[in-house]
Amino acid sequence: MYEVYATREVVISAGAIGSPQLLMLSGIGPWRDLQNLQPIIDPKYLTHPDDVKAAVEGARIALRLMDSKAMRDIGAKPWDIPLASCEWAGPIWTDSYLACLVHHMAHTTWHPCCTCPMGSDGRAVVDPELKVLGVRSLRVVDASVMPTIVTGNLNVPTMMIAEKAAEMILRENP
């Protein structure tokens, strides 16, 4: 863990504290010092059993869709060649096999969001002005503040969040 001290408001972006790139861009420290920190960014994907369970349920839905008349009519079928690294997990398409498959094959699409949601419920991390709840002079300005994922690419909504944040910061710091 790293402690970082700032003399002005800091905007954390990309949902990560301790990232030398972010700290360098926000002017908190010299590039060489920050590079020496070598941060570890581990989002802990699929480390909670509920996440794996949800992914297995999603795979089950996909398998049911593959078995629909519409999919059968076009010749669609699941890839039924067992993954060698999951042979220990039992017969193909069992929950244990699907859990193993999820661990070996699932990946992100490099557009993380909704990890620091804005709102007033128990999940909220930031308020409507993007300020981190319970922390002075710290905002999160990126896709992580979205309470739910948008249906399209995150690029434009994230730019809109950033523009609104810039307006709020300038209004508070003329």
UniProtKB/TrEMBL annotation:
Molecular function terms, GO-annotated: flavin adenine dinucleotide binding; oxidoreductase activity, acting on CH-OH group of donors
PROSITE patterns from the UniProt entry: GMC_OXRED_2 (PS00624)
Keywords, ordered alphabetically: FAD, Flavoprotein
Residues covered by the Glucose-methanol-choline oxidoreductase N-terminal domain: 15-29
Cofactor dependency: FAD
TM ranges: none
Pfam families given in the database record: GMC_oxred_C, GMC_oxred_N
Stored SUPFAM superfamilies: FAD-linked reductases, C-terminal domain, FAD/NAD(P)-binding domain
Coiled coil: none
Family, similarity comment: Belongs to the GMC oxidoreductase family.
Protein name as it appears in the record: Glucose-methanol-choline oxidoreductase N-terminal domain-containing protein
